[in-house]
Predict the 3D structure of the following.
Amino acid sequence: MLRDIFYFLIFPGLLFAFAGGGFLSWFDRKVTARLQFRVGPPLLQPFYDCIKLFGKETIIPADSAQGLFFLSPVFAVAGAVLSCVLILLPAFGMTSGFAGDIIVVFYLLMIPSLSYIIGAIASGNPLAGLGASREMKLIIGYELSLLLVVAAVIMKAGHSLSLHEIIAIQQQQGAFIWSLSGILLFIVAMMCVQAKLAFVPFDIADAETEIAGGIFIEYSGTILAMVKIAKSVMLLALPSFVAVLLLGGLYFYGIHIFWSILKILGVVLLITLVRNTNPRLTTGQSMRFFFIWMNLIAVVAIVMTYIGW
């Protein structure tokens, strides 16, 4: 029991995931600033932002379902941290995990987005409701694409449902990305990560220039800090998930520590470059993008995996 609490709250759970996600958030903002010929924030700025929010007043809308509105960010943090723990434990070699943990992780990664939708609807704000509607449509699009990626990886791993075994197979046979089907799966996975993180071009649910923050318009103070924590943890969890599924896993011993960090930074760098070189898509464009193109590429990758490519 104590070990499980340590895993969830300390390492590789809440504290470690928030620290790692905060660093990646700084990295994303720093690269963005350099692309725009700015200096960018100091290293600890993401942490300063959260600490400052914890000291601000938390305003609960009078017409909101107050319980759901307040608890939704808590559920978002819990889902993000749990998914991060189940992804990083096998990556660190600390436990073998359990059969089917890849499916559990897939569903846990959905909890933050669903929590944001519930909180937005509970707020009673019409702009938040519009953002929730956009987020629901986006989820319908990218979750199927991500599920097809997971299915293809399971096929590549000899139908194994264990993240530990998927990592072990890549240790023996090489990273899945070093195949034609692996490259296609990586492209689809990266687009799904972009959408899950609500980064441009898929930031339609909280577009500040259109709907003034959308699903987060009513959040302030402590609960807004919880939202930022959840997003920081997801910024570590999702690139780590991609690395485990397709990039050969993460190994935190010896020189492999350096290469593992480079894998995660490389994924975040690609995400940052996409968000800074593309315009925001509309809801219809986003759904067509996933339903037609990403699903098609994923299905082609599955067929290629079946014939050994």
Remarks:
- The mean pLDDT is 90.
